[in-house]
Design goal:
mainly beta
Length: about 700
């Protein structure tokens, strides 16, 4: 018998994935695929071998070891169309069928497989069709690789809460953890030493670390690609099982020139790893900075308003580490003093500040400004910064100048004490002068105005000047010669005419008794409006005091009265002989209420009478006789025909008695001779002529 035609070459076999693994598989996942066998010929196909051996399906684990792709499966065979024989309907074993398919017949095998939980490589699911490999219609399947399940963090181990020290060895670690349920592979982790940057004291970017050692360890699960130890950069590509952990410990040496923040970041799968601790700042011990403010200008004797003075602010970093963000302030408007009135004013009206680094390195120093000092400094160890301040003292300054500043928020007390202004009272003058016109003298009860002018003619402040005008100390005499108060009442009004003055009484009806402070080139005036006592009868000697010294007298003259001076002359003999000596006595009496000054007496001797030199003497009231040659400042005589005595003064109710001798000539005729005396004030006659008459006789001869 003839065998039926058997063309197995008409069989087509295909293996395809049913489960969507476009994003990769998950170890342990159950997946499905199918094998389709179809006779595309016109005749029966007999004895076609279909194989799918589970242990032939391979992959690799994380270590690259070849393992079974599937740990188990279930195969279900089904005739889809036509007729077929030899189809295994259901098995958990391998597929190894010898089948026959009618023309157009089709059979399917559904494989439900569990992927090996250790699978980490590609799964290329092949089968065998009649001894030939069956390529799947889908490409090899990679495991799912969700890198977002990797958490990466970088954290500091060394405690730098108080900052780092340049040159210090510090440790930090990088932690990688696969928080997902599947393997993550080809995960790139980088830490490049030269990418870690900071700044030096001058603000230049430098490497944060000059050297390091990196140690890598898998602390949980399975991880591959981990560098165990290196002094180079970290540049690993790792795979990490679900729940796996990798830890890198970095022991690094901080750059000795480091002065800025260190933000130690890395790269995980191309993304920055920000550390879980904030950027590390250097140790910043501001207490190591000393600050002092000292006067350069010598003000031991005080300052002068308007003077330009210099002082200096010196900062020094006495520590072994840099100091950053150090605030130094000197605000001009904060420097206060007082004026003469006690008002708070600015000590300085302008200034110029010049800053310089005199040792080490200092950053943030203002070179020069006419504004306030408000610098934020960075100072290297041993650095010294100096600011020189040239300031103009307020022209109205009169109080202490305590020049303070602020260093890191704290007051900088100057190394020199508070400075007082220069005071000089020697340039203060006071003058008392009459305003009311009393050229012809006053009358009792008149109103009089005078003024006291106090002036500081110096360029320094004059403090504590005592100005006095006491009403009861202003005296005169009444008609009877009794001492009385010159004024019955007054009003004193003070004002500042120029400059500044403090302590000036505005208006008072009491005594003037001010203690005043005077600014440079300042002037004060007091106007005194007084009523002259109704019984006043004599000149008023109006005095006052400045700092205990009597002021220049401002006299108020009384009106002189007619015939207030009387003059008389008497001779020692009524009858005298030729050749005899006669003594004359002249009396001048001031019966008025006004003292008379500059008086003299003109004596007119008869022709033939001659003044005898050095015989003139005088007395006032009951004083003893003094010859002109004996009395200091006594009367002298001008004898040019008339005998004129030197000037003298007479107080009210005072009398002067002048005596002198004259010789009668021998050649004159006998008869009556009259000698006259006239009182003069300067050269003006103020009295009539008084006279004394002598009878001159011939010398008598007595016979014995």
């Amino acid at each position: 018998p003839k065998e039926p035609e058997n063309n197995i070459n008409n069989i087509r076999i295909n293996k395809e994935l049913i489960t969507d693994l476009s994003n990769g598989y998950i170890p342990g996942q159950t997946v499905q695929y199918k094998i389709t066998v179809e006779n595309q010929g016109a005749v029966l196909a007999l004895g076609y071998n279909v194989k799918d051996i589970r242990t032939d399906q391979k992959t690799t684990d994380m270590n690259g070891t070849v393992i079974d792709a599937f740990t188990s499966w279930q195969i279900t065979g089904t005739v889809i169309s036509g007729s077929a024989t030899g189809i295994t309907l259901n098995t958990t074993g391998d597929l190894n069928d010898i089948i026959s398919l009618s023309s157009g017949g089709k059979a399917e095998y559904l494989i439900t497989a569990v992927i090996n939980t250790n699978a980490a490589g590609k799964i290329t699911n092949k089968g065998v069709g009649n001894g030939n490999p069956v390529e799947p219609s889908t490409p090899p399947v990679n495991p799912e690789n969700n890198k977002s399940n990797i958490s990466a963090k970088k954290e500091l181990i060394t405690d730098l809460s108080n900052g780092y020290t340049p040159g210090q060895a510090v440790q930090y670690k990088i932690l990688l953890e696969n928080t997902g349920a599947t393997l993550v592979s080809s995960y790139e982790i980088k830490d490049i030493r030269t990418n870690q940057k900071t700044t030096d004291i001058s603000g230049n970017r430098i490497d944060s670390f000059t050297g390091w050692t990196i140690t890598g360890t898998v602390t949980n699960g399975t991880g591959t690609g981990v560098t165990p130890n290196t002094t180079d950069d970290l540049n690993d590509t790792v795979s990490l099982s679900a729940g796996g952990k990798i830890e890198y410990t970095i022991s690094a040496v901080i750059n000795t020139d480091a002065a800025g923040k260190i933000t130690n970041a890395g790269l995980a799968d191309g993304n920055g790893i920000e550390p879980s601790t904030p950027p590390a700042e250097p140790v910043n011990d501001k207490s190591k900075v000393t600050v002092k403010k000292e006067l350069v200008t010598n003000l031991l004797n005080g300052y002068m308003p308007g003077q330009t003075i210099e002082y200096r602010i010196t900062l020094k970093n006495t520590g072994v580490l840099p100091v950053n963000n150090y605030s130094i302030k000197d605000i001009r408007a904060d420097q206060k003093t007082t004026d003469l009135l006690g008002n708070s004013i600015e000590s300085f009206t302008s200034w110029t500040i010049t800053g310089a680094v005199t040792a080490g390195t200092g950053i943030g120093v203002t070179g020069s400004t006419a504004g306030d000092l408000n610098d934020i400094l960075a100072l290297s160890p041993g650095a010294v910064v100096e600011y020189t301040v040239s300031a103009v003292v307020n022209i109205n300054a009169a109080g202490k100048v305590t020049n303070t500043g602020l260093a890191d928020g704290n007051s900088v007390e100057p190394s020199t004490p508070s400075v007082d202004p220069v005071t000089d009272n020697s340039k203060v003058t006071a003058v008392k002068e009459i305003i009311t016109n009393f050229e012809n003298g006053y009358t009792a009860g008149d109103k009089v105005e005078y003024k006291i002018t106090v002036e500081n003619k110096g360029n320094a402040i004059a403090k504590g000047n005592v100005v006095k005008d006491i009403r009861l100390e202003q005296e005169t005499f009444d008609f009877d010669g009794n001492t009385i108060n010159a004024f019955e009442g007054w009003t004193v009004s003070g004002k500042v005419v120029s400059g500044q003055a403090y302590g000036v009484t505005g208006t008072t009806s009491s005594d003037l008794n001010d203690t005043i402070n005077l600014g440079p080139n300042s002037k004060v005036e007091y106007i005194v409006s007084a009523v002259i006592h109704k019984a006043a009868y004599n000149d008023i000697i109006n005095t006052g005091y400045l700092n205990g010294a009597e002021l220049k007298t401002a006299s108020i003259k009384a009106k002189p009265e007619a015939a207030d001076l009387t003059v008389s002359i008497t001779a020692s003999k009524n009858i005298a002989e030729l050749g005899e000596t006669v003594e004359y006595t002249v009396r001048i009496y001031n019966k008025g209420r006004v003292a008379r000054t500059g008086l003299n007496v003109k004596n007119i001797l008869p022709v033939g009478f001659g003044y005898i030199d050095e015989t003139a003497a005088y007395k006032k009231d009951s004083s003893k006789l003094r010859t002109t040659s004996e009395a200091s400042g006594g009367l002298s005589v001008s004898n040019t025909g008339d005998v004129i005595f030197s000037t003298f003064d007479l107080n009210p109710k005072e009398e002067i008695i002048i005596t002198y001798a004259a010789k009668i000539g021998t050649a004159i005729q006998t008869g009556k001779y009259k000698t006259s005396a006239i009182v003069r004030e300067d050269s003006r006659e103020v009295t009539g002529a008084a006279s004394a008459t002598i009878q001159v006789t011939v010398l008598r001869i007595v016979q014995v």
